[in-house]
Amino acid sequence: MKTTLISLSLFAALAIGGCGSNDASTDASAPAPSASSDKGGSAVVVAYDLGSKKKGDKGICVICNKNEGTTAEEDVVETLDYQGKTYVFCNEKEKADFISDPKKYAKP
Ligand SMILES: [Zn+2]
Question: How far are the Cα atoms of 7, 65, 99, 108 from residue 82, in angstroms, in the given order?
Answer without folding.
Answer: 87, 17, 9, 11
